[in-house]
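Anyone able to model this chain together with flavin-adenine dinucleotide?
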Amino acid sequence: MVDSAIIGGGVIGLAIGWRLALRGQSVVVIERAKTGSGASHAAAGMLAAGVEVEPTETNLWQLNRASQQLWPEFAAELESASGMIINYRREGTLALALTPDDLRRLTQSYDFQLSHGVELNWLSASQCREMEPAVSSRIRGGVFSPHDHQVDNRLLVAALRRAFLAAGGRLVEDCDARLVQSHQRISGVALAEGEVITAAQTILAAGAWSAQVVGLPDSIRLPIRPLKGQMLAVETEGAPLIERVIWSPTVYLVPRQGGRILVGATVEEAGFDPRLSFGGIFGLMEGAWRVLPALEEAKISEFWTGFRPSSPDDAPLIGEIYPGLILASGHHRNGILLTPITAKIVGDLIMEATAPPPSFLPSRFD
Ligand SMILES: Cc1cc2nc3c(=O)[nH]c(=O)nc-3n(C[C@H](O)[C@H](O)[C@H](O)COP(=O)(O)OP(=O)(O)OC[C@H]3O[C@@H](n4cnc5c(N)ncnc54)[C@H](O)[C@@H]3O)c2cc1C
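re: yes, here you go
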């Protein structure tokens, strides 16, 4: 018998597992492939609570902001616990306008964000180019968001895995898990290889696959669906072309170590279709080239797709959904950003019986 069994070895499952193990729990994480092979591998690692806020998402924005504030300490603790560097970078994010229409939209969102207390700076076109000299001479202006940082999400997964194991957690990889029910309660998980693990509570953190996990009670219908994203990465030579994350109306560009730049991402209702599409990749390349013409010389090093775990209101679902079963999924475009706060909310629920924030309870969709 363990205290907690967690289905899913993405950032959400691993971070919850790590934090629970640190608080003295016996924890097992079961991942059907390798840890971080889902959305957590596909992501861009932006921690963008500022530039991403939209007028309809006030509650979500507050959660994003709260998690953003946890990130510096979370990153430092994780690096120390894992002995790994996760490249948490604080250069901020620059959102650019390329056309008069973009400028109008950017002004509107800037006004809205300012009215909600987001710290942002409006920049003229020449100030934008001073900050990032390689951006196109066609840009019309921009907004700089100093607190929208980034992390290398693939290193994050590796560090969480290591920290979880170092804290005494048990990890089972390459093994499908299903829920086991007894006496109107989820009593643990059964592994594809035959082992049954009895757990005081089971945490469902299976990302976009959460609604498909076998053994979900019939009364539970999870409104979580995959939202496909295509991305690509290029390698540039010499001095880094850009220092900070750049947003344009159609794409974002994320600089990584060694001249690597990520270009993302499409947002598609396409089920679990993992194929790249001509239009998707073309749109990313064209959008990126319009912002950063020097990319023409860059070498393409990788293309990929991933599946965001999305919900009807784009916000996560965190809380008990059945006796013995806690859901932590539906993190949509912000799962990397929301990793620290999700681990805290679930940890506090289990260890202190603290109720999760009402706006994110799964019961809001009942
Ligand atoms: C293209 C793209 C770009 C993104 N960019 C960003 C970004 O810049 N910033 C940000 O904050 N977020 C971003 N996201 C969103 C973020 O990646 C996700 O919200 C987050 O990774 C979700 O983490 P997770 O652990 O819930 O899911 P996942 O990482 O998908 O992990 C779920 C895991 O569960 C496993 N699993 C499923 N079923 C079972 C089962 N039955 N048994 C055992 N294991 C199972 C899967 O194999 C998978 O590894 C992006 C997503 C995409 C696709």
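Helices lie at 11-22, 39-42, 58-82, 100-115, 125-131, 153-166, 278-291, 339-352.
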